[in-house]
Amino acid sequence: MELIGEVAAWFGDPTNWAGTPGIPNRMFEHVWLSGLAVLVGTAVALPLGLAIGHTGRGAFLAVTVANLGRALPSYSLLLIFFTFFGIGFATAFPALLALTIPPILTSTHIGVKEVDRDMVEAGRGMGMTEVQLLRRVELPMALPVIIAGIRTAAVQVVATATLAALVGGGGLGRFIVDGFALQRDDRLVGGAILVAALALATERLFTVLERRLISAGLRAVVATKPLSVGPFAKSGSPIAP
Amino acid sequence: MRNFRTATLGATMLALLLGACTSGGSGSSASTAASEPPASTAPSVESSAEASAGPSIASTLVLGGPPECPERPFCLVGLEKTYGLKFKEFTPLDAGGPLTVQALTGGQIQVGLLFTSDPAIAVNGFVLLQDDKQLQLADNLIPVVRKEVAVANPLVADTLNAVMAKLSQAELTELNKAVTIDLTPTADAAKAWLTKVAIPATGGGSGSLTVGSTNFYEQEILGEIFAQALEANGFTVERKFQLGNREIVFPALESGEIDILAEYAATALEFVNGGAGQASTDPAATSAAFVTALEPKGLVALEYAEATDQNGFVVTKATADQYGLVTIGDLAKPAS
């Protein structure tokens, strides 16, 4: 129980909030590394997923890449990349990027594929081009599933970015790794709390984002009948009426 | 209930996001602010002592070492107190492992903490900075022999002392590299080294001896060198290597199961005296204390080598050339 007091004292110590090893900078490093990985991961996987979902071509590739990506442990990726890129960001970033692509690719491809074909045909009947179909029909309707995929990726990345400290990187994992090295439980637990809180915050951020981005017409549908498409539909949070 | 949950989570998230956002700005400014003052104030403190002007070399360099380094007397604390060094930054890495080596070669750090006989120093052509103000405890290589054996055969001590006299830091590091990196068999590496340094083979020895070693490769290499040097002088030598740790090897020495062992003065002294804190940074004093501590066990320590295996601060050849670094003390000199 005295650990709680020690951890509280650790958070209260102003020296832990200053400079490069301070909480604000480590939080910034963590958010920066995770954010960039999710951003680049989305930039790669989203267009690919949309193309595969829309054309129906390359689905095998998407599934293979996704399964492969999920089977690779992040820690071993870190150690493999370490031998090529050295310490810190250069190694942590590609390892995290590899983590973001499978969920985003899968959710996008499945989200688009599962859009009611009648809707797509109706659009086509109205004379929409393929790009218009994708942008105005498929993308808006698949968006809940796509965002759920990005959220899964983001939460995983925030949790896994902790490992960057093992290859000499920054981020909140520093407190945990250094806490072990120094046998200082206050630092260790404090770091663990910060990582957990950041992961929860990320989860909530995407819930809010989802609420904002999903088209109003779809919201009513979702509210009455939650979308039951794709593997990520379940983790999509209930939309408040 | 759900509203409550949503509200709490939302509040947590907002607080954290705000923290993260503001930290983005203040974090980076704080870090520059934190690294700026030492750069300007630290040298002024040093300059009074070193009679130099401008920022020190250290204040422009990043130090890398194990995460516990900033709180350890033989690491950052000692560098600050004994040498008056303030580095630009400290990067937490590992205890003389691959991270530190990679960070040095990759240029993310300029000064790294490795062990003084680490083969990586030879592999990468790093420059080991001399501990000119003797910050580290004297872990010089030193042979430990059963007194009975040493008294009966003075040639044993003469042979081992001749070996230790030739064992420089660079020689030991090269031996470690040959065995662990180039995968030369220990016996071949030992033979090549003995041929190279030309230990005089006087002959005249007789009887059989047993050389022991812990599981540590360096002690095993030394054990093999001892064995071959003794064989060259006519002794019959049995090797009992990889026996385990000190808790096993020292009782084996006392019981006569082995006769000879390569040890490290400071660490072995503190092992034998139960951590009484007699080891110092002076190898002569430490080995003298070691001899005294071994006396009741029926053991004796011979002459120590120049070579050590202790904390060592290294820089790349390029950094050493750029700043003209030979000793740790050189890091306190003005940068320009």
Protein model, in words:
The complex is a heterodimer of chains A (241) and B (336). With 241 residues, chain A is an all-alpha fold. Chain A has one domain: MetI-like fold, CATH 1.10.3720. Chain A is built from ten helices and no strands. The radius of gyration of chain A is 21 Å and the shape is elongated. The C terminus of chain A is likely disordered. Chain B has 336 residues and is an alpha/beta fold. Chain B has two domains: 115 residues, Osmoprotection protein (prox), domain 2 (D-Maltodextrin-Binding Protein, domain 2, 3-Layer(aba) Sandwich), CATH 3.40.190.120; 161 residues, Dipeptide-binding Protein, domain 3 (Roll), CATH 3.10.105.10. Helices cover 50% and strands 13% of the residues of chain B. Chain B is built from 13 helices and ten strands. Chain B has a five-stranded mixed sheet. Chain B has a three-stranded antiparallel sheet with strand order 8-5-9, sandwiched between helices. A two-stranded parallel sheet of chain B has the order 6-7. In chain B, strand 1, helix 2 and strand 2 form a beta-alpha-beta unit. In chain B, helix 7 packs antiparallel against helix 8. The chains are: A mainly alpha (241), B alpha/beta (336). At the A-B interface, helix 2, helix 8 and helix 9 of A face helix 1, strand 2 and helix 3 of B.
